[in-house]
Amino acid sequence: QVQLVESGGGLVQAGGSLRLSCAASGRLYSMRYLAWFRQAPGKEREFVASITWTGGTPYYADSVKGRFTISRDNAKNTVYLQMNSLKPEDTAVYYCAANTKNWSLRTSGYEYWGRGTQVTVSS
């Protein structure tokens, strides 16, 4: 089992920045990919970014490319999502997810999920 706990959400004005953290614990040796997803009210959960636990090229959704950066600190067992130039359309609950299999941008491709952290961007 892998446990994931997100933090760092909040209210920010458009153009501002936030950094989300995802603390992982449990059977970390089994993890392959860590990802961030988000879900806005009335919408489906969507892929934001992913990174491998052991190193590799990050992957981003087109909607956040150039504004968001995913990174990891293995010493702290933590994955981060640095979000810059935030827009009102970035408002959503952000979820951290992990899998033990192949890369995916689908929610069904991830076995472990955190409870989410709310990000609200005001215009």
Q: Summarize model confidence as the mean pLDDT.
A: 95
Structural class: mainly beta
% residues in beta strands: over 45%
Helix content: under 10%
Low-confidence stretches: none
Q: How many helical elements?
A: 0
How many angstroms separate the termini? Answer: 40 Å
* Total number of strands: 11
Calculate Rg over CA atoms: 13 Å
Quickly list its features.
mainly beta; four-stranded antiparallel sheet; single chain
A few lines on this structure:
The protein is mostly beta strands and 123 residues long. It contains no helices and eleven strands.
Topology:
Elements: E1 2-7, E2 10-13, E3 18-26, E4 33-39, E5 46-52, E6 59-60, E7 68-73, E8 78-83, E9 92-99, E10 112-113, E11 117-122
Parallel strand pairs: 2-11
Antiparallel strand pairs: 1-3, 3-8, 4-5, 4-9, 5-6, 7-8, 9-10, 9-11
Provide an overview of this structure.
- By secondary structure, the protein is mostly beta strands.
- The chain has no helices and 11 strands.
- The strands form 2 sheets. Strands 2, 4, 5, 6, 9, 10 and 11 form a 7-stranded mixed beta sheet that branches. A 4-stranded antiparallel beta sheet has the order 1-3-8-7, with no helix packed on it.
- Strand 7 (68-73) and strand 8 form a beta hairpin.
- The model has no long low-confidence stretch (mean pLDDT 95).
